[in-house]
Amino acid sequence: MSIKTAQSPKYMRCFLILLALAVILPELTETYFFDIIVQIRQSIHSGDSGFLILAAMASCILYTIPNLLFYLSFECLLAYVNSRIAFSLKVHNLILGFCFVLGKTAWSTLLHQPSELVTSLVALWITLGLVYLTKHKARIMMPRIFIGFQVFFFSQWLNVMPIFAGLRTGTSDIPISIKIASDYLQNTYILNSIGFAFIVPMFLSSFMTAMIFRMYMTNLSIAEENYQRAIALETMQNKIMDNRIYQEINALAHDLKTPLATIRGLSSLLALAKDVDKIETYGNRIDQAVVKMSEMISSFLYGTSRQWIEVSALISYIRAQIPVEDEHIQFTTAIEDNIPALYVNKIRVARALVNLIENAILAPCVTNEKVIKLNIFKALEDVVIVIQDNGMGIAEVDLNKIWQIGYSTNNTTGLGLPFAKQTIDENEGTIQIESQYGIGTQVIVKLPIIEKGEITCPA
Amino acid sequence: MLKLKVLRKPVMMMIGMAIVWCSIYYLKSAYEVHHLSSTYLSKPFSNNMLLITSAGQSTDTYILQDLANELRFNNLFMPEATPSDLTEISSIVIVVGYSEIGLNLHDKKIDDECERVKTLIDEGVSQKLPLIVVYVGGKARRNEETDALLTLSCEYANYIITTNSGNYDQFLTELAGKKETPISCINSINDLTKPLAAAFR
Question: Which of A40, A167, A184 sits opposite B189 (nearest CB)?
């Protein structure tokens, strides 16, 4: 329960200021007490109950101020102490009650001030009860100020209401004078009615205030819980993405084997070769294989890295990575003639397209034979790659969620589509999915056609 | 077990309400005092000019002034009257009730007030002026200071008027009994008219 915050010294300062105010209060309020005496005299002489009501109102305000100052000052003190020594709310309330009684008794005795201890304690008890209802775990001042002010004010009406005269309330000078004057003027019912008119609505108001703060706290804790969940989800997604990177590294390592095998073969031939022309040819080929390996590594390491690649080469590369050996899967490819070369990160784009085709392969199918079509054609300034399947399709409600990391309708990792979208976006392309549930899905990838003269700073 | 848990709160609330109700009933019954009867004087005091003064500077004095005006008594209202104010006075009425704020308003302490009242009474006694002590503060205003002022005032009083609630412990009856001073106990402040009228008419 101990909460050491930057506000801790502030609580101590507040305590000292409030206590100092309570000490100098008699000097500030003395004339107002005299005014009350004058109002009581006017009401007796004129028989006007209005003056008596004004006196009662002023008395309630003047009795509320010290109570509120003492209550809030000790709340501040305990908030400060609580930041250093942890204790429960019950102990907090017990100490507060003890300090309140001690402080008020000392104040009234040393400074000769009127004090209504019974009503003050009743008010304190109600305030602490209502503050407890707010379910504030930390020592926050705002609900205490709002609830305390209302409760301490309405409870002071118990002092001046003649109906409660026998309950040890209103035993100090001013309330007694008001009640005697009211008895003489035979208007005790007016004071009682006005007292109830204050007490009942203000009690309800303080209760409602407590409930509002409680709701606020509940909402705050829910929001905090949701925020924590979102952070946990994001952390989990990041871990999943890291895992995905390891998978990609595996794929790259596998792809690097091909040029390495080439280099190895050529180097063994180089050892046997005696013809200078052949040595030169083998050397050139080894160099090409090294360049290819370098490009592959760059493509993987840097998302901004781009290379020129013919569409047919890209498709061959993709086909090599897709195991379409199932006899129930019919995979067809149609490439339009004269399609210009693409300037993309060929490793990443190829991996993205492989992911899309794998999704089509894994999608459940209503018919016995799965048909997957890969169509590539030119449309205005883009090369369009369409992957079409006759699977179950995606329900309309799920279409908005498919780009979320971890979302999957067929128990996969749910990383393929987000990765594909990220890669296509990085290569200035667009990706779009159209699906009809029960009929099939069509993924449309558009990659921009770039003229060779437009590249000013090749990667 | 579940039913017991559900019933626990209403039962506790009912017990709490019963305790509060009993406490209120006890406190109210302890507060209301219904005893003593009123005693009226056979012969009235002179009402040529009454001096209405206070012992303790409570607002109760204003009530007596208002009543005196209502009864059309010739009166001089001086809450801080001194022996020099007793010229042409036929009777003294002292309204007792300690008020700290009242004393502060007149920039006085309780000892100063006791001294003033004592000298006033002494002068009144030396001039053989009738002294009527009125206490309408009830049980609430009874404290050490008020009791001291009552003891001081009642010593030479010719007539004491009090409310039943103010005499809840027979304190004023005992003070009156020492010198067999006539005492009237009234139920409420509004009954004050009768003994006052009897005293001065």
Answer: A184
Residue numbers of the domain that contains A84: 3-232
Least Cα distance to A188 among A206, A164, A166, A168 occurs for A164
Close Cβ partners of A401 (under 8 Å, ≥ 6 residues apart)? A407
Say how many CA atoms lie within 13 Å of A178 toward its Cβ.
35
Is residue A459 in a domain? Answer: no
**Cβ-defined contact of A166 to B102 (cutoff 8 Å):** no
Q: Are residues A211 and A276 in the same domain?
A: no
Q: Please indicate, yes or no, if residue A454 is contained in any of the structural domains.
A: no
Which residue is associated with the tokens 């569409």?
A311
Closest C-alpha to B94, from B129, B132, B137, B45: B132
Are residues A293 and A249 part of one domain? yes
A338 and A386 in one domain? Answer: yes
Both A311 and A288 in one domain: the answer is no
Is residue A342 assigned to a domain?
Answer: yes
Contact B105 A179 (CB under 8 A): no
A308-334 residue pLDDT tens: 888 888 888 888 777 666 777 888 888
CB contact under 8 A, B27 and A173: no
Domains in chain A, number: 3
Q: How far is CA A255 from CA A47, A189, A293, in A?
A: 106, 98, 9
Within this chain, do residues A197 and A312 fall inside the same structural domain, yes or no?
no
Find the closest chain A residue to B33 by CA distance: A166
Quick one: A345 and A253 in the same domain?
A: no
What tens digit of pLDDT does each residue of A327-366 get? Answer: 778 888 888 888 888 888 888 888 888 888 888 888 887 7
What is the per-residue DSSP string for B160-199?
A: EEEETTTTTTSHHHHHHHHTT--EEEESSGGGGHHHHHHH
Chain B: residue whose CA lies nearest to A167: B27
Residues A26 and A39: their CA atoms lie apart, in Å, by 19
End position of a domain, from candidates A254, A280, A301: A301
**A287: helix, coil or strand?**
helix
Q: A397 and A261 share a domain? A: no
- Interface check for B102 against chain A (CB to CB < 8 A): the answer is yes
H-assigned helices in A302-340:
311-321
Question: How many CB pairs lie under 8 A apart between chains A and B?
Answer: 72
Q: Does the CB of B32 have a partner CB in chain A at under 8 Å? A: yes
Distance from CA of A46 to the nearest CA of B (A): 9
Q: Do A171 and B31 touch (CB under 8 A)?
A: no
Q: Are strands A307-309 and A342-344 parallel, antiparallel or unpaired?
A: antiparallel
Cβ-proximal residues to B59 (8 Å cutoff; 6+ apart), any chain: A37, A40, A41, A44, A177, A180, A181, B97, B99, B102
- In the structure encoding, which two tokens stand for residue A49, read together? 């109950």
pTM flag (> 0.80):
no
- Average pLDDT, integer, range B117-126: 93
Q: Are residues A224 and A284 in the same domain?
A: no
CA distance, residue B125 to nearest chain A CA (Å): 30
**Model confidence band, residue A435 (pLDDT cutoffs 50, 70, 90):** confident
Inter-chain touch B104–A30, beta carbons under 8 Å = yes
Residue in chain B lying closest to A38 (CA): B59
**Could you report the predicted ipTM of this complex, rounded to two decimals?**
0.82
Pick the last residue of a domain from A232, A265, A282.
A232
Angstrom distance (rounded) from CA A338 to CA A320: 23
pLDDT at res. A325? 65
Q: Let me know if residue A240 belongs to a domain.
A: no
pLDDT digits 0-9 by tens, A93-113: 899 999 999 999 999 888 888
